[in-house]
Amino acid sequence: MASCPSRALLRAVADRILLAAMEGYRPDGDWKQRIIALAQRLREAFCEQPQLAAVWGRYASGGTGSRLVLEDRSSSWNHGSGVRAVTS
């Protein structure tokens, strides 16, 4: 099923908001502090446009902003919590 054009536009706008939220972000501290800092950045970024947060949460964009957020979250969990990434 093809994606709705307006949904694609909303996902692209949400991804731009994520890019702006990640700009200048330098992870610091243990994994819990990193997750909290990332969550605070996302909350602040989507505070003005909460409907876009719902769109991004439901339909991940796969854009650069989304990837940056997911990569940092994964890195925080994998490296900070003692959990090792699974490799083949």
Can you characterise this structure?
With 88 residues, this protein is mostly helical. It has helices spanning 5-22, 31-47, 50-58, 64-80. Helix 1 (5-22) packs across helix 3 (50-58) and helix 1 packs across helix 4 (64-80). The longest helix is centred in the N-terminal third of the chain and has 18 residues, at 5-22. The radius of gyration is 14 Å and the shape is elongated. It starts with a helix and ends in an 8-residue tail after the last helix.
Task: Give a quick rundown of the structure.
This protein is an all-alpha fold. It is built from four helices and no strands.
Which short descriptors sum up this protein?
88 residues; disordered C terminus
Low-confidence stretches: 83-88
Strand content: under 5%
Helix-strand string: HHHH
Largest sheet: none
Give the structural class. Answer: mainly alpha
Summed over residues and divided by their number, the pLDDT gives a mean of: 75
Number of strands: 0
End-to-end Cα distance, whole Å, is 33 Å
Summed up, the helix count is 4
- How much helix, percentage-wise, in residues? 55-70%
Radius of gyration, whole Å: 14 Å
Shape: elongated
What is the strand and helix layout of this fold?
Elements: H1 5-22, H2 31-47, H3 50-58, H4 64-80
Helix pairs in contact: 1-2, 1-3, 1-4, 2-4
